[in-house]
Amino acid sequence: MKFVIKRKEKLTSNIFLMEVTAEWVARSAKPGQFVIVIIDDKGERIPLTICDYDPVKGTIVLVFQVVGKSTEKMASLAVGEKFKDIVGPLGKESLMMNLPDEELKNRRMLFVAGGVGTAPIYPQLKWAKKHGIHADVIIGTKTKSTLILEDMMKEYADNLYVCTDDGSYGMHGLVTDAIKHLVEEKKEKYDEVVAIGPMVMMKFVSLLTKELGIQTTVSLNSLMVDGTGMCGACRVTIDGKTKFTCVDGPEFDAHLVDFDEAIRRQSMFKTHEIATDSKDHKCNLTAEVNHTIKRRRVPVREQDAVIRATNFEEVCYGYTAEEAMEEADRCLQCKNPGCMSACPVSINIPAFVRQVRDGNFAQAFKIISASSSLPAICGRVCPQESQCEGSCILGKKGDPVAIGKLERFVADWAREVKLNFSEIAPANGIKVAIVGSGPSGLTCAGDLAKMGYDVTIFEALHLPGGVLVYGIPEFRLPKETVVKAEIENVKKLGVKIITDVIIGRSITIDELFDKEGFSAVYVASGAGLPKFMNIPGKNLNGVVSANELLTRSNLMKAYKEGYDTPIYPGKVTVVVGGGNVAMDAARTAKRLGAEVHLVYRRSKAEMPARVEEVEHAKEEGIEFHFMTNPVEIVGDEQGWVKAVKCVKMELGEPDASGRRSPIEVKGSEHDLNADCVIMALGTAPNKLIIDTTDNLKSTDWGGILTDDTTATSREGIFAGGDAVMGAATVILAMGAGKKAAIGIDEYLRNKKK
Fold this sequence. Notes:
By secondary structure, this protein is an alpha/beta fold. Helix content is about 30%, strand content about 25%. It is built from 26 helices and 34 strands. Helix 14 (about 360-370) packs across helix 16 and helix 21 crosses helix 22. The two termini are about 35 Å apart.
């Protein structure tokens, strides 16, 4: 999609209006919703409420104020130039749109706009007028020269009142003064107030309307990274409960909002420099490798721990051809290979290892490619120790064959020599849609394309790859050389990837069937929303989800010099959790300059993270606190984290998972000094697709309900990966994608009969 600027107006000295082509957004947008804009390759994701939209022209109108580096760049763009990405519409439509028509006709509303907040008021006012609502408008601004959209508002407002701080135009005073004047002196009666503007303005409007007994709605433009609910950065407290602005809002009952917390969190990145210092990479490719023990695993070369803890270069260097052949020679070539049956995508492991042993790397790649579309990725991030290598006979008395490292070697070799084995069946003209471009979606798309289907992937973010690009750090999984290359291989099969499309917002699944002509849909949208501990201080400044930290660093390249996205790793950081995501977050924070402590409520033996990742973290200087659990996050006078209150734990009886349940040790309270807390506690499902797709059944915990073929309760809709299983591994998601491709093919073949 081309996000071309068709019109640009300078409304004030630092406020601009732009009309931009964004077909997907324009045809689905509703008042109250917003988009996320990315200016260029190094730009941050900027949330902007939609001021207007035209589904016929395929354009949207954005109004923004120059407040920093990114918006300054935006203001410099001219008509005819393009934004790199615009994704949306995001968030829910205005709350008033859900009211019955009869109630709307008798409703009197007061819209209160502050500064650039006038822009998001406009589409709501326009809609209200068309639906018979009587609406007055108050616009608050510093001075006459900063007033925007006055004539546009006059067209739809029953009465328009302007108030200026300096009295240069309209009423002299604040918007709260105008509200008091209308209600107390003019005796105007309003059923609802809708206030949009600076957070502090909305706070004082809310305090006043609560006193006056008027229902009030506010639109919260909070911190945001992805806009899909994945990172948790946009969390706010509503009636004592944590909500996410991008999926639960942006509109909320004003009288239930914790404005003080929201104001504090909004200022989080204003006083902190971006930690993106680059470090020189010292190569140790010449490191000597010990080959003296023939039947022990050939060691793999890695960056020195002290050096790698200061950079984002890949930790593991992988095998040379000679090392790979030597390691492959250890394989016993079992007649009934347990390694193969333990592989979720059923790679013929003995066969490809034998080819590596004999130096036939091209043939080895051909064997792997028959089962896996992402071998260079899987060779790096799959938990081989609990899958293929865990079932290797050699592992019973020594080291199992390094299957993952051999798979990586073959895939990297093939990429370097530009080898490709893509055998595609004749095109059958049947269209299949894939929701999400993570490992499950990419796998399903690749397998279906090989069968001859016309496959399109719809991705919510501005780059394809899902967790591969936003979740896994560069030092474990290089994005340009590995992830991008393997996605390009999937595209070479004929798979189309459309980014910046939110299924359920930009277009619904029903519209994919009815309007776009797709015959089947595979939902591989991922796990969704991050979890936070329900303890005091959970929303202090400096408390972030691992998803947020990793998304800022990985997807938005905040760790690299020259990129605009801010990041806050803290100076002394506590990471809560024991899985691979916790290791990734801890090691990322360490590389960004933080002193990192990881707390885990069970023992080391029970950590779900890969042993290799735990060892790497320890080598890099991460301090582990096992059998420790946070009970409170302590803040300072400014609302920032200053310590984490913890208790010691001991293991009791096994829980439902089979692991022994941790029990608090009485009197063991102690503090860990910290200025940042990273929550790495797993994810909860994002219900956007379930909520916008009729009769799509879900499980008790919110995942999409499927049968053994990945078919859902709706005919033609299939689902798999984290959207069904909850957060799992890359390879398990790929396995679900392969199963889905088989199920979809069978369904469509039977449908033709």
